[in-house]
Automatic annotation (TrEMBL):
<protein>
    <submittedName>
        <fullName>Bola-like protein</fullName>
    </submittedName>
</protein>
<dbReference type="GO" id="GO:0005759">
    <property type="term" value="C:mitochondrial matrix"/>
</dbReference>
<comment type="similarity">
    <text>Belongs to the BolA/IbaG family.</text>
</comment>
<dbReference type="InterPro" id="IPR002634">
    <property type="entry name" value="BolA"/>
</dbReference>
<dbReference type="Pfam" id="PF01722">
    <property type="entry name" value="BolA"/>
</dbReference>
<dbReference type="GO" id="GO:0044572">
    <property type="term" value="P:[4Fe-4S] cluster assembly"/>
</dbReference>
<dbReference type="InterPro" id="IPR036065">
    <property type="entry name" value="BolA-like_sf"/>
</dbReference>
Length: 112
């Protein structure tokens, strides 16, 4: 008898999710199978910064991500962040995502 129960992850997203945020959620969910994922679009807090002047994407440029996934087991924080940066390479290089703020944990780290 198999004990494979599939639980749906808790996903919390911005009130108005755009196409880039939706893509980020899909990629993170598919790759890391998180038990918890929270993404917040903080672009409005940065739209006046000098680096954003003339930018083509000011509505989905800055995100805050909290993710709990056992796929991070055995990896230190920089390695976890590198995996996410690699996964979101297209959004960062081609779609105008300027910054990601991340909290990455495993379920055992949350329990401790």
């Amino acid at each position: 008898m198999s004990n494979s129960t599939t639980t749906q992850p808790t996903i919390i997203q911005s009130k108005i999710s755009g196409p880039i945020e939706s893509s980020i959620i899909e990629k993170l969910t598919d790759k890391f199978h998180p038990s918890y994922l929270k993404i917040a679009n903080d672009s409005h807090k940065h739209s006046h910064h000098a680096g954003m002047v003339g930018a083509s994407n000011v509505k989905e440029s800055h995100f805050r991500i909290e993710i709990i996934s056992d796929e991070f087991s055995g990896l230190n924080m920089p390695s976890r962040h590198r995996l996410i940066y690699q996964l979101l390479d297209d959004e960062l290089k081609n779609k105008g995502v300027h910054a990601l703020q991340m909290k990455t944990k495993t379920s055992s780290e949350v329990k401790n």
